[in-house]
Design goal:
This protein has eight helices and no strands. By secondary structure, it is mostly helical. The protein has two domains: 80 residues, RNA polymerase sigma factor, region 2, helix turn helix motif (Rna Polymerase Sigma Factor, Chain: A), CATH 1.10.1740; 64 residues, Arc Repressor Mutant, subunit A, CATH 1.10.10. Helix 7 crosses helix 8. The longest helix is centred in the first third of the chain and has 25 residues. The termini are far apart.
């Protein structure tokens, strides 16, 4: 890759790496898997960057590559042996001063989101990132109307999963 192009890529990635971390959190259950997925997404972004034409915003393109990479690896991992998540069995001492209500609610929300299919997960993620439906539809390759309809259905699924 051209050194100037490489410098642009690194600058863009550094400025927007939280996008990749959020996707990793959605598709992984532990820090090691998170790190592996982050690395794989970064590699795929690096490989694809010379083909980035700027037809969309860099972040929209980044979402698309990152989500596609995460979904592909997630599907492959479903074929492997299921192991117990370390954090779910780790003994924790609750502090009497610390109110973990919000943290527990977030864990429940992520658990519910993980039960959705790959496209619905990506849709919820982009929705929670406050992306407009026009950008969501472009990122996922669906129509804006379809994105809205799917989101309404997913909200219903999440309510059912969360017993709200």
């Amino acid at each position: 890759m051209d050194p100037q192009l490489e410098k642009q890529f690194v600058t863009q990635l550094e400025a927007n790496q939280n996008i990749v971390h959020k996707i990793c959190r959605l598709y992984t259950h532990d820090q090691e898997s998170h790190n592996d997925l982050f690395q794989e997404i970064t590699i795929q972004l690096f490989k694809a960057y010379p083909k980035f034409r700027g037809d969309s915003k860099f972040t929209t393109w980044m979402y698309r590559v990152a989500l596609n990479t995460a979904i592909t690896l997630y599907r492959k991992s479903k074929r492997s042996i299921k192991t117990q998540d370390y954090e779910s069995v780790m003994f924790k001492i609750a502090s009497t001063e610390y109110d973990n209500t919000v943290e527990e609610q977030l864990k429940l929300m992520y658990k519910a989101i993980r039960q959705l299919n790959d496209i619905d997960k990506a849709l919820v993620f982009l929705y929670l990132e406050d992306k407009p439906y026009s950008e969501i539809s472009e990122t996922l390759g669906i129509t804006e109307v379809n994105a809205r309809v799917k989101m309404n259905r997913v909200k219903g699924k999440l309510k059912d999963l969360l017993n709200v």
